[in-house]
Design a protein that fits this description.
EC number (chains A, B): 2.2.1.9
Structural class of chain A: alpha/beta
Number of strands of chain A: 18
Subunit structure (chains A, B): Homodimer.
Radius of gyration of chain A: 26 Å
Cofactor (chains A, B): Mg(2+); Mn(2+); thiamine diphosphate
Oligomer: homodimer
InterPro entries (chains A, B): DHS-like_NAD/FAD-binding_dom (IPR029035), MenaQ_synth_MenD (IPR004433), MenD_middle (IPR032264), THDP-binding (IPR029061), Thiamin_PyroP_enz_TPP-bd_dom (IPR012001), TPP_enzyme_TPP-bd (IPR011766)
Family (chains A, B): Belongs to the TPP enzyme family. MenD subfamily.
Chain lengths: ~575, ~575
């Protein structure tokens, strides 16, 4: 090994071992030349699993899904130039969704930058405000203090990425030719088990006792309270929030991504059909509350957001362990940067007795049950429309499975048709920026660490990240992709744009006329077309075998779909009018 | 029209009309909600052609290709969030390749930013240093001075984007709901033909006479000179540089993208096989020169770059109308920010007489002819290998056609096998950052304004931008995509990485096993498999009919391909040794 090769080899090896010691278990690599030293050493390290995806945009979303499902920081590596630019959509999503990504871009050395050299763009702070941290790395150097620097930087990158709110960090590595390290058997020779590691830990944010006491006193006084839960990652939260709700006698309006609608959290306090009944004008007007306690991201339901925004509660607390300003409604009175579980426990402890069950709580449970019954009647529809399809697929998911849902319509249908359930079904989505991009890859990344995994997406989302499917084949991952193909942008039929005849199909409907059986063939997957419950049963049985990629396609109709949904909501609304008739209901 | 709708409508309408008056003829739109007012008004404006592509990454490359082929600034529009982030790869390419793009992103209004509202990321300076100019636009406002502001900003955006070096500009538009403008018939009512326009013009950069005289005196003294031409956009350059070369008696080493190898420029001074014979050690050592005059981007040939870098010429001029530092070799003595054509004309005018034909020039023409003859013998290969395929396809291109080539291997094969030709074939590629991304879309964008257009790409490039194919169907564009499918990253077989058995296929070869007949079916295209000259003839005849999308796939072998190329180069090298034997050749 000459000196240059030694510099290249040891510098990269210690960096990678530094990542591993800091808890990185997986790396997603896209092929390229400039990234060669890092790629070969990642493939060589015994304690890191390497995944390959050729399209860097998909690769980055794959890493995001993997990090999301595993809760562990995931590394990403690409070559120089526009390759690195392709990471931006996933980096932006990771920043908003708080996913720890270690983005490693290789770059030309300084003398080849901005002088017209090939495959070279300005990679300095390439992701702008969307990376939590950026560092331009030193050139490879095997001096002892430089190996220490690069190990420390690896640990620091993980430390920053994981700290609440978690997010992506970006390290840019200049590499000078020649690019080949001497990797074979290197990590054994380095005796990596004896190499030093830095212990990384982060304390939990806890509010001072006095403040909890003040809050407890307020909560004790208020009977008409609501707990609202969105997506969050605090450990033990489900149990803690249910305990708190029981003491307070408040209903929990639980977004599907809160984790509260399924599995152990299962509680009669959980309200799962609010999106349907909060569309009712009478309820919106009359169910006025005194206090709101919000955890996690804003729920997907627009009806809920509008309902909360309509009433100025005396107290409206937003609790977020990440200290983010997750408050698009503009009504918060308390912004509390505190761990969600710890907050619930501390508050519960200050509330000595459980409140007697109030009519307030009974009302919420009552109308929720009534609305739910109507929403569940979607199963009785003669036609396998989008609502029924969603409902029936959900019925057929096995215990301990994971479901990744697309944005736009699927996440809304999940909200409508996923009711509290004892099965432990992990619900995942990309709700950082709610893009229709990268969903296939995010689901596949999740499927790499949690199985079985089902993805439900619309046709435009599947198209947008069709390249993502290649990762199933390249990395031997099992996934079932259920595509609801309504030939275009279904959500626009719900928006005011739907009223515009002129230009509507050109700009919003955008029918792409895609038959995904060809996509299945292209990516070596199986394909099933679903037209009725019998074929759905067959398809889901095939999915249960979990053998590589399976695409299940159902053809639906955008126009009929809006009508069917609106009919259900209208039924719910009429039932609500009946139930809450008279002046006594909310008293 | 209420006041809000009036603000939204007139503000966007005047902006769009401002773009049109400044010379924007096309806009590429991706569907979305936030961008509704701008999208509807773009579709409504009588003088702007709207193209639709659902995938924003592909949309941006489509706009880039369209702007590249038309020479006109092209607008791009998307919704908020990661949609906008998907533009970055094309924006980075446009910056490096000097393509004028008007990037319009719609955004949430200020009160919905960074508060956890959906589909919202920080779009401020989203493209960092990769946009020439960024502006955060005012909220829609129909006050007269605000309509003037928005018209002026449209003109300014085009003015900046087009100025040499051209590039992308980014305007971020906050839109508040409701988002529907009153568009139907609006532009007639506005009587846009009478609305004011700002005349935009840019002067040419000309060196002072005295400096030209000093340079002319130097050039007169030096017999052993080289003119090197890469991709450039100066009008009339081909003619001007050939005239100058004739006066100086210098060979012109012309990159295929210089435009000099085909059509009218056709001259015996043009050297087209330097990439083959400059691999010969003897020539590299002995053909030493005194002076180099370079125009445009650095040519693709690494052999040429290394050859130039080896000799310190007394004078090494880099002429660039954009004033860029296009000098990765580190040997320039003169950096001249001047229009290429004007420079050639001015210098020619100062060189009174034409130099007698020197042995220097004769030698270059002689070895070029010898090398070319050997390279052309690829046509005699029994097997339809990559070299032969490339050569045979090129033979079959019709006059006045355009050829877009992929990066990695295709651009290098173009360099090897596209010889000076009287046919006017327009050669296009994305050489700003040389990415393998966005090539299908760039070619389709070009095909929207120049026809017939052929794209030659490798399988990984076609895979990377497979989504791009949708634009052919959505916008009714004809294109022939010729995919050389060697099942993976063919270029790595030429690099030192090829020596690494371990991890090679995983990290570099990356065989994806794609059969693109399925892609053709998915996107409603025709498909032909080429295995010999007869099937190539048939396929090219089908292509000549120009009916939508046609994919022509040829299966090749990565390993054999390297061997075949190296055999050709070795033959050339041996011939060069023979030709230049003895000490007298370069005297």
């Amino acid at each position: 090994m000459n000196n240059k090769q030694k510099d290249l080899t040891l510098y990269n090896a210690h960096f990678i071992d530094g990542l591993v010691k800091a808890g990185v278990e997986s790396a997603v690599i896209s092929p390229g030349s400039r990234s060669t030293p890092m790629a070969l050493l990642l493939a060589e390290h015994p304690d890191i699993k390497v995944y390959v995806q050729i399209d860097e945009r998909s690769a980055a979303f794959f890493a995001l899904g993997l990090a999301k499902a595993s809760g562990k920081p995931t590394a990403l590596l690409c070559t120089s130039g526009t390759a690195a630019a392709n990471y931006l959509p996933a980096v932006a999503e990771a920043k908003n969704a708080r996913i720890p990504l270690i983005v490693l871009t290789s770059d030309r050395p300084h003398e080849l930058r901005e002088v017209g050299a090939p495959q070279s763009i300005d990679q300095n702070r390439l992701y702008g405000t969307h990376a939590k941290w950026f560092a331009e790395m030193a050139l490879p150097d095997a001096e002892e203090h430089m190996l220490r620097y690069v190990r420390i930087t690896a640990a620091k990158a993980v430390y920053i990425a994981k700290q609440s709110p978690a997010g992506p960090v970006h390290l840019n590595f200049p590499f000078r030719e020649p690019l080949l390290p001497q990797y074979d058997g290197l990590f054994e020779r380095l005796e990596i088990e004896d190499l030093p590691a830095i212990h990384l830990s982060e304390g939990m944010r806890m509010l001072p006792k006095q403040e909890i006491e003040v809050l407890a006193a307020i909560f004790k006084e208020k009977e008409k309270g609501l707990i609202v839960c969105g997506e969050q990652q605090s450990e033990g939260f489900e149990k803690a929030v249910v305990e708190l709700a029981e003491k307070l006698g408040y209903p929990i309006l639980a977004d599907p991504l809160s984790g509260l609608r399924s599995g152990e959290a299962h509680s009669h306090l959980i309200i799962d059909s609010y999106d349907a009944f909060l569309r009712n004008e009478k309820i919106k007007q009359e169910a006025s509350f005194d206090i709101v306690l919000r955890f996690g991201a804003m729920p997907v339901s627009k009806a809920l957001t509008q309902f909360i925004g309509r009433h100025d509660a005396i107290v409206h607390c937003v609790v977020d362990s990440g200290g983010g300003w997750r408050e698009p409604i503009g009504v918060a009175t308390h912004m509390l940067a505190a761990d969600e579980s710890a907050f619930c426990q501390a508050l519960s402890a200050r509330l000595n007795e459980q409140r007697d069950r109030s009519s307030w709580l009974e009302n919420w449970m009552h109308i929720n049950q009534a609305a739910k019954t109507i929403m569940q009647s979607v199963g009785e529809h003669a036609e396998l429309d989008e609502g029924k399809l969603f409902y029936e697929v959900l019925q057929r998911l096995p215990d301990h499975s994971a479901l990744f849902v697309g944005n736009s319509m699927p996440i809304r249908d999940l909200d409508s048709f996923f009711f509290t359930d004892e099965r432990r079904i992990r619900l995942l989505a990309n709700r950082g920026a709610n893009g229709i991009d990268g969903l296939v890859s995010s689901a596949l990344g999740a499927a790499a660490v949690t199985s079985p995994l089902y993805l439900i997406v619309g046709d435009l989302s599947l198209f947008h990240d069709l390249n993502g499917l290649l990762a199933a084949k390249l990395n031997g991952i099992n996934i079932t992709v259920i595509v609801i193909n309504n030939n275009g942008g279904g959500i626009f039929s719900y928006l005011p744009q739907a009223g515009e005849q002129k230009h509507f199909e050109l700009l919003f409907g955008t029918p792409a006329d895609l038959d995904f059986s060809h996509a299945a063939k292209l990516y070596g997957g199986d394909y099933e077309r679903v037209t009725d419950l019998a074929s759905l049963d067959n398809s889901m049985a095939k999915a249960a075998k979990g053998d590589g990629l399976l695409i299940i396609e159902a053809i639906t109709d955008r126009a009929k779909n809006v009508v069917a949904h609106r009919e259900l909501w209208e039924k719910v609304s009429q039932e609500m009018n009946k139930l809450t008739a008279g002046e006594g209901f909310w008293k």
